[in-house]
Amino acid sequence: MVLRRILYLLFVITIMKYGKGQNSDNSSTEKPLLDNQNSDNSSTEIPLLDNQNMPLVALFDTTKLNEVLRAAIKKTVEDTMNEMIPRIKQAVIDDIGYEPGRKKERPAFTASLTSTKNLASNEVVIFDKVWLNMGGVYSQDTGVFTTPKTGLYSISTTVMSYHNSYLHCNLWKNNEKMVLAFGNDVSTGTVNVVMAVKMNDTVYVKHGTTSEEQIVGEHRSTFSGYLITE
């Protein structure tokens, strides 16, 4: 279809030449298929017939040909991308098991701390910048992750201590203190665990001492989790 349209629009014969000279030996003079020797390089002569010393030559406008070819290539690329993007999106959805509003949605979240702050005794750390919150499982108001499904979850947190100071933070599940993340003098403490939880269990990061300590923000302290399997 595209080829037919190009032939119809572009390959219009503008000049037909007859009897364009003879050689002394009554043999025809052959020209290359594409002769771009015109001064403006915008047209091409193509020999169509050379019989009985009566050459038939067509002059094609290559400027229009180039324009249409560029437009056809651009449209082909756009059509291909428009076809591929939904497939890529669906492949990602199938891989992570997430589709808004459906039961196959897989809980997952990532949040970080925007500003450096002082942590009071046993204060829950609220990571206020939410980057991902599939299923609305994390509260940026309370800093608590509430599990919507029973299963195995991957949970991780990284906390950075302030200059010349210590930082003690613990990962908690419900009312149970779990592992410790410790930092000292602009260093980080990181925790990565896999835990079995029940529906509506809560997981959060809590300051671990009775004295005040500082935690560095600027997205250097983070909290995240996702369902591995039910």
Automatic annotation (TrEMBL):
Subcellular location: Secreted
Organism: Mytilus galloprovincialis
Signal peptide: 1-21
Record domain C1q: where: 102-230
Protein name: C1q domain-containing protein
Keywords carried by this UniProt record: Secreted, Signal
Origin: domain of life: Eukaryota
Pfam families reported for this sequence: C1q
Entry GO CC: collagen trimer
Segments for region (Disordered): 21-47
Transmembrane segments: none
